[in-house]
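Anyone up for a design puzzle?
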């Protein structure tokens, strides 16, 4: 399980650049894995600070993104993987923008919302922005009829 923040300010969204195991970089939401026993609210506050330098306050629970997909494993058979990601809307309340050192991300930046479709990003960015815009009462995005299923962890290449 993981918790992520959608921080939108002045028409821009705060993103962190994730470094994949093969060295490829993809923009994602600030956030990440929950530690055992950690409350998701505390996870998102901790992760935003670690990855961006900002202190943030979650102001709304936008939803939960639940995806099941197969992951290839090096020299082993594929694994059935279930991702459960809790998505909050959060406001930056302090701190200064900086890049994470020695973590899973290498950069943090604000991006104008209209520029997001042109970024190389993970699918969670689109899911979270849709949750933020549509605010479904049940906190769940259903795939429209005829749409391809979510690509799991496969990033968008624009």
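Challenge accepted. My sequence:
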């Amino acid at each position: 399980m993981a918790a992520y923040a959608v921080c939108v300010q002045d028409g821009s969204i705060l993103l962190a650049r994730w470094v994949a195991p093969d060295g490829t970089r993809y923009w994602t939401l600030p956030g990440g894995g929950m530690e055992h026993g950690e409350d998701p609210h505390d996870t998102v506050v901790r992760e935003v600070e670690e990855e961006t330098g900002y202190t943030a306050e979650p102001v709304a629970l936008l939803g939960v993104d639940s995806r099941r997909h197969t992951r290839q494993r090096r020299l082993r058979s594929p694994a059935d993987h279930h991702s459960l990601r809790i998505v909050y809307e959060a406001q930056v309340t302090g701190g200064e923008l900086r890049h994470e050192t020695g973590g899973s991300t290498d950069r943090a930046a604000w991006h104008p919302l209209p520029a997001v479709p042109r970024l190389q990003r993970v699918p969670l960015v689109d899911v979270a922005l849709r949750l933020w815009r549509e605010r479904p009462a049940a906190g769940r995005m259903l795939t429209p009829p005829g749409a391809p299923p979510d690509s799991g962890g496969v990033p968008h290449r624009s």
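A detail worth pointing out: Residues 2-134 form a domain with the Nucleoside Triphosphate Pyrophosphohydrolase fold (CATH 3.90.79.10).
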